[in-house]
Amino acid sequence: MGRGGEPRRVHAHDGELGAAVARAQEGDEAAFTVAYRLVQPGLLGYLRGLVGDDAEDVASEAWLEIARDLGRFKGDGAGFRGWSATIARHRALDHLRRQKVRPRSSVLEQDVLELAGPHSTHDQALESISTEHAVELVRGLPRDQAEAVLLRVVVGLDAPAAARVLGKRPGAVRTAAYRGLKRLAKQLGVEGVTDGGPQTLGESK
Fold first, then answer.
1. Rounded to whole angstroms, how far apart are CA atoms 108 and 93?
2. Of all residues in the chain, what percent carry a pLDDT higher than 90?
3. Average pLDDT value for the chain
4. What is the CA radius of gyration of the chain?
5. Contact between residue 157 and residue 165 where contact means Cβ atoms under 8 Å apart
6. Domain range list for the chain
7. Helix boundaries (H) for 52-154
8. What is the CATH architecture of 3-201?
9. What single DSSP character describes residue 39?
């Protein structure tokens, strides 16, 4: 169970990631490469939602910091995803301040979309989104909804972990993610989307 009694979201490779991080902290460079391979796709998708075409440059800055501070990290694979996302977000916001532009909404890449729960509203909403269509749809989301969707869907964090990245309460992240996905579902004409929302995201009726 995660904080607040919510079942913790388990990523398919969190066990492998946790083991790789532990070995990397002992100086195993090959293990660090494994950790990079497992985390980078989601991290890059998240950064594309914040800084657009500059995502790869910002990701490089983030990974330099991750490598430098790796010895300070304490936790498992899921924790490493959240820790990495926090570092990446800080670097993205620094980049945006330098560029003096506002964060852009997400480019959700189809190959990194992984949603929990079979036949959920989220699955139905996103199954039919092509990369090009996703760009147009998610750019229209408010920033808080876009970031919540990115962290929960692309990076694969649970609500408490995403909340720590954003400095918000888990309930606020659940609500923002649900509203963003609900808006996408409506635009796609997905049936069965109600104002009550999926209970797994903690949206009260």
1. 19
2. 42
3. 76
4. 16
5. yes
6. 3-201
7. 55-68, 77-99, 121-127, 131-139, 143-149
8. Orthogonal Bundle (1.10)
9. H
